[in-house]
Amino acid sequence: MLTEEQLLAAPEDDYMNEEQLEFFRDLLSQQAKEVRESLASAREQLATFENEPDELDKASIEEERRMALRFLDRQTKLLPKIDQSLKRIEEGEFGFCEVTGEPIGIRRLLLRPTATLCAEEKQRQEMKERNFRDA
């Protein structure tokens, strides 16, 4: 199996060859497993929170609960993105921008394997969102 260094050193014309797809399939599968485990752990933690009569303890527990719920929300949203990326690998669409069809790039995919947009398209969309918000 390829290492990150080998992946980054590969020629551009090898982009998303079978070895590279296998690397990302394994990476995403491992991430999905970790997310599922962390979700189960966070849910278990939430179930063990107790009501404390002391106001300071109560505030502390509420803050911990809020942080756990926020973590759960993030992880719950990440899992479908991982599953969608695995599906894109199977369909031969992984690594290519959904809008432009251009390669997303190995570096970007290593940082965010669930990316579906190339950096340029992501920037365009963020600019549109900022302009829309500011208008």
Automatic annotation (TrEMBL):
Coiled coil segments of this chain: 25-52
Zn finger region (dksA C4-type): 97-121
Domain Zinc finger DksA/TraR C4-type: 92-126
Molecular function (Gene Ontology), one example: zinc ion binding
Protein source organism: Reinekea blandensis MED297
Name of the featured protein: Uncharacterized protein
Lineage: Bacteria, Pseudomonadati, Pseudomonadota, Gammaproteobacteria, Oceanospirillales
Sequence ranges assigned to domain DnaK suppressor protein DksA N-terminal in this UniProt record: 20-89
Annotated keywords: Coiled coil, Metal-binding, Zinc, Zinc-finger
